[in-house]
Design goal:
about 500 residues; alpha/beta; Rossmann fold; N-(1-d-carboxylethyl)-l-norvaline Dehydrogenase, domain 2; 2 domains; three-stranded mixed β-sheet; 16 strands; binds D-mannonic acid
């Protein structure tokens, strides 16, 4: 470290960039913004921005630079930092065999929308912006996944309907931007591309936006139906929450100070429905798969990868594992996850020709075991309530319908309920991060966690799974976990 010349990333140039850090292989000052992206978190920086960086380096087509936009007040400090370094940051891609650092140059502009909403609207309305993409998490869509309708009553939505100047939701910004675009007729056409782990993410985005416009401006809704497309997409790259260790590694290896550094696994996948209203970059040249129907890919990924994360998340966290790679290397947890994938989830899936599901399951076990990314149990457990709904409820419904064995799924629900107590097997406290369970709900259900499954929306419109047999199974696992600890209970289950 001592012989390294320490410098801030913003001060590096193509000429001075340490060779092992890999400077973007295109001239950033020639790049035009063709994509506006809302939600510039770690995942976007490790996934979409990396694909676009590859695309511009490989093809020389520089029309697809990204302007990263943040709309949540809490995004401010990070976006200011990223803006100070002109959108440049390091991405470390690593697994147990290789580590590669690179500077990503595809984010050429950064904008914190609440500070200057008009600037954000103007950017979103600019005709040369041909794609507006999003990673705003499930919650950002303001969509009721059970009733399949827009949360029109949400206070932020009500605020935006009455206050066009300072919007709070993505829809408030899109309303004004699309209104400006509609004045250009067909020339204003645009693609809204959701990149969140939400089943049928494009369809949800479309329904939610049209739901908003029904109240804001129904005639604009009609224009949107013709001139805006909402392709569904499946996105995949395990990206732990970025932190100190990513920054330290870049500093140690290259002498570069980068508070926006992000680390991710080497695996990357993006499958998108080829439905772009205003053109698209030739992403197939950098490994993106285009398809007419993304659902088999999306369902497989959500049920196998995200579902397994939950399966090992709560029980592993209760057992005292704070890292995913360590949890999956525990023989009992690995067995549980393998059984879940092979016996519960895989039989509910449609075979995919270019994604053989047996191989995929094997790859997942290896990916979960990646010790260099040291993925966080806390991350995969956070917002567990919504994730259970979106990734696991569909598996449970299918398994029950097929009259299958529900013991692992009932264990999963029981481990989630026990996890909500915030104390692990060793009596240590665990931070619980839940966005869609209020503190009141958590408190009120403390004496009877099962009530969360009975009365409220977790089982929602699935009366079949409200069946008492399944609830009895959950209750019995919960009692077992409370009596002997989650890990001992899991071992007993695997023996049985
Ligand atoms: C994780 C995902 O937190 C979670 O829900 O399962 O973030 C997962 O790491 C990504 O979907 C991988 O593509």
């Amino acid at each position: 470290m001592s012989e390294l010349n320490v410098q801030a990333i913003v001060d590096i140039t193509a000429g001075s960039c340490p060779q092992a850090l890999h400077w973007p292989a295109f001239n950033r000052s020639d790049v035009e913004v063709g994509i506006a992206h809302i939600g510039v978190g770690g995942f976007h920086r490790a996934h979409q921005a990396r694909y676009l960086d590859d695309l511009m380096a490989g093809s020389g087509d520089l029309h697809w630079g990204i302007c990263g936009i943040g709309i949540r007040p809490e995004d401010k400090p990070f976006l200011e930092t990223l803006a100070r370094q002109k959108g440049l940051y390091t991405l470390t891609e690593k697994d147990d065999d290789q580590t590669r650092d690179r500077v990503i140059g595809s984010l050429v502009d950064v904008l914190f929308a609440p500070e200057d909403p008009q600037r954000a609207v103007d950017l979103l309305a600019r005709p040369s912006v041909r794609i507006i993409s999003t990673t705003i998490t499930e919650g950002g869509y303001l969509y009721d996944f059970e009733k399949h309708r827009f949360f029109h009553d949400h206070p932020d939505v009500q605020h935006d309907l009455g206050n066009r100047v300072q919007p709070k939701t993505i829809y408030g910004y899109l309303w004004q931007a699309l209104e400006a675009r509609s004045k250009l007729g067909a020339g204003g056409a645009v693609t809204l591309l959701s990149c969140d782990n939400v089943p049928h993410n494009g369809d949800v985005f479309r329904k939610a936006l049209l739901g908003f416009l029904e109240h804001a401006d129904p005639s604009l809704g009609l224009w949107v139906q013709t001139h805006v497309s909402f392709p569904n997409s499946m996105v995949d790259r395990i990206t732990p929450a970025p932190g100190e260790s990513d920054q330290q590694a870049v500093l140690q290896r290259h002498g570069v100070v980068d508070p926006c550094a992000v680390g991710a696994e080497t695996f990357i996948q993006w499958v998108i429905e080829d439905d772009f209203k205003a053109g698209r970059p030739a992403l197939e040249t950098v490994g993106v798969q285009f398809t007419a129907d993304v659902s088999p890919y999306e369902t497989a990924k959500l049920r196998l990868l995200n579902g397994s994360h939950l399966m090992m998340g709560f029980i592993g966290y209760l057992a005292g594992y704070t890292r995913v790679d360590m949890a999956i290397k525990d023989p009992a947890i690995r067995q549980l996850v393998k059984d879940y994938m092979a016996l519960d989830a895989a039989p509910t899936l449609t075979p995919i020709q270019d994604m053989p599901l047996d191989d995929y399951q094997g790859q997942l076990i290896a990916r979960f075991g990646n010790s260099t990314i040291a993925d966080q149990q806390q991350r995969i457990c956070s917002d567990g309530y919504t994730k259970l709904k979106n990734y696991l409820m569909p598996v449970l419904t299918d398994v029950i319908e097929a009259g299958g064995d529900t013991r692992r799924l009932s264990l999963l629900f029981a481990s989630f309920l026990k996890y909500l107590d915030g104390v692990n097997d060793a009596g240590e406290s665990m931070p619980i991060i839940e966005f869609n369970l209020s503190r009141e709900q958590l408190h009120a259900s403390a004496a009877d966690r099962l009530s969360l499954l009975k009365v409220d929306a977790l089982f929602g419109e699935h009366p079949d799974v409200r069946d008492t047999r399944f609830l009895d199974e959950v209750a019995s696992h919960l009692a077992g976990i409370r009596a002997r600890g989650a890990y001992a209970h899991l071992k007993l289950l695997l023996q049985g």
